């Protein structure tokens, strides 16, 4: 139950972070947004170090660095995806892709679910699909480029989560610190190489920093949830984060929520209840 609640908290934080990051990427080049978000996220994790502890062993360093490379790709691809829009379609696409790989890894590593879990897991995946049902009359349709970016973002997010899960349980927040340090270095290096293409627009500092802080919180909650529960369940619950993005897009940007998406939110609630019984 604790792992489930942590995963739900991670999902909510990811959804809010994605919305703010997507808004920030609409105001300036996506790399300018990530240049602010990634260091802000690192600062939060450094502040957590004295509280939660960290053990920088070889395994923590290796898996943390791998998650950092995936995180840098996820930041850039996801914020670019959401900047193109529509958020209420593209965010769930990334979520579905990001859920599939960790579920496969968890099952491959021998995780098994009870009857409630066997019912709840496919329902949760169905909920992610339904939340993406934004193709009704008058709905904005994503371009092929936007869909490809969404699939790439989902794959990068999935790899980041899998790599974090592989880090030793006793390493504290070391994998998060290493991962964010690597992602910050990759982002700043890419921005230095491509500085002439970034344009004159300044990043939305407050939006970008808030996105980074929330992303850091989401990573921490996911790591704690994955250490206390099955990756198969935790990854799917975390992948429900588009619900937060969709609701914020509706309230702030007036993007439409369709019946299929409402059905998806209801299905998600039932799935979470079933998974809580596993």
Supply the key terms.
11 helices, 278 residues
Q: Can you tell me about this structure?
A:
With 278 residues, this protein is mainly α. Helices cover 79% and strands 0% of the residues. The chain is built from 11 helices and no strands. It has helices at 2-27, 30-52, 58-84, 87-108, 115-131, 144-166, 174-193, 205-228, 231-238, 242-253, 259-276.
What topology does this entry show?
Layout (H helix, E strand, L loop, with lengths): L1 H26 L2 H23 L5 H27 L2 H22 L6 H17 L12 H23 L7 H20 L11 H24 L2 H8 L3 H12 L5 H18 L2
Helix pairs in contact: 1-2, 1-3, 1-8, 1-9, 1-10, 2-3, 2-7, 2-8, 3-4, 3-6, 3-7, 4-5, 4-6, 4-9, 4-10, 5-9, 5-11, 8-9
Radius of gyration: 18 Å
Largest sheet, in brief, is:
none
What class, by secondary structure content? mainly alpha
Strand segment tally: 0
Approximate shape: globular
By DSSP (H or I, 4+ residues per run), the number of helices equals: 11
Can you give the mean pLDDT?
Answer: 81
Helix content: over 70%
Order of helices and strands: HHHHHHHHHHH
Give the CA-CA distance, first to last residue. 9 Å
**Strand residue content:** under 5%
In the predicted model, the low-confidence regions spanning at least 5 consecutive residues are none
Q: What is shown here, in short?
A:
Helix content is 79%, strand content 0%. It is built from eleven helices and no strands.
